[in-house]
Amino acid sequence: MEIFGIPLQALLSQLLLGLVNGSFYAMLSLGLAVIFGLLNVINFSHGALYMMGAFLAWMGMSYLGLNYWVMLVLAPLLVGAFGIVIEKTMLRWLYKLDHLYGLLLTFGITLMVEGVFRSFYGVSGQTFEVPELLAGATDLGFMVLPNYRAWVVAASLAVCLGTWFMIEKTRLGAYLRAGTENPKLVEAFGVNVPLMVTLTYGFGVALAGFAGVLAAPIIQVQPLMGSNLIIVVFAVVVIGGMGSIMGSIVTGLGLGVIEGLTKVFYPEFSSTVLFLVMIVVLLLRPAGLFGKEK
């Protein structure tokens, strides 16, 4: 069976592969949306922290002999701790200033982090083995799906939906939202708003670290792995709506699928289709698909 001259098997294969890429887009854009939506900071260092998560996992396995599952938990915690240090020593002084200052600071952090890893490991990639439990593949009939890629989609969806539920449907999430809009009022109820803000930034960058660990067995771990991806992720955040949690999740997954299908119908256009979608959305709805119009 063919659709527009394309075999259905090839179409479904690219659809699933696009969903895998979309899972990374959703995870990374979710972290950016959390940080911007709750702290009003444009975190340009997100790609470098994604790379740091992958490298920390690789280092833990290579130097310390720890397994993948330990590093899947430990690496994001370490990235989150690094983010907390950044927030407490640098970012917190910029909250009341223009967004540009936060953007410049996090861009500088990106250059420093990438430079440190590049000085130790160069630009060549490091091999990261798929964990034994997720090795192999499953025959779906129309394609053979690697088990690890299926795990990436499942883990990303679980973390993304869990984060959305926590922020939008729990008391903690209500405190977070209220603390960014009226911190003095929330502090009057005994809530430590500065600590809450610090932990929120740490959590947002930990999501980037988690995505880095998930990506490590699929792509080579190297210092510039987040540089190109962060531009795409910013496009996802803009299309979904700056600060919109659900917008980031839905848009990330959807654009990954669109990119995958474009590779079937018009491969030369696959690297630019996301930015064309962004242009159209900004022209028709400047606040993004899920953003709130002011």
What do these coordinates show?
- The protein is mostly helical and 294 residues long.
- It has one domain (7-284): Orthogonal Bundle (ABC transporter involved in vitamin B12 uptake, BtuC), CATH 1.10.3470.
- Helix content is 70%, strand content 3%.
- It has eleven helices and four strands; from the N terminus they run ββααααββααααααα.
- The chain has a two-stranded antiparallel ribbon. Strands 3-4 form a two-stranded antiparallel sheet.
- β1 and β2 form a beta hairpin.
- α1 (8-39) crosses α9.
- The longest helix has 32 residues, at 8-39.
- The protein starts with a strand and ends in a 10-residue tail after the last helix.
> What is the rounded Rg?
19 Å
CATH architecture assignment: Orthogonal Bundle
> Element order, helices and strands?
EEHHHHEEHHHHHHH
- Our measurement of the CA-to-CA distance between the termini, rounded to an integer number of angstroms, reads 48 Å
What would the CATH topology be?
A: ABC transporter involved in vitamin B12 uptake, BtuC
Q: What assembly state would you assign to the polypeptide chains in this entry?
A: single chain
Domains (count): 1
Strand order of the largest sheet: 1-2
InterPro entries: ABC_transp_permease, BCAA_transport_permease
Keywords: Amino-acid transport, Cell membrane, Membrane, Transmembrane, Transmembrane helix, Transport
Subcellular location: Cell membrane
Pfam families: BPD_transp_2 (PF02653)
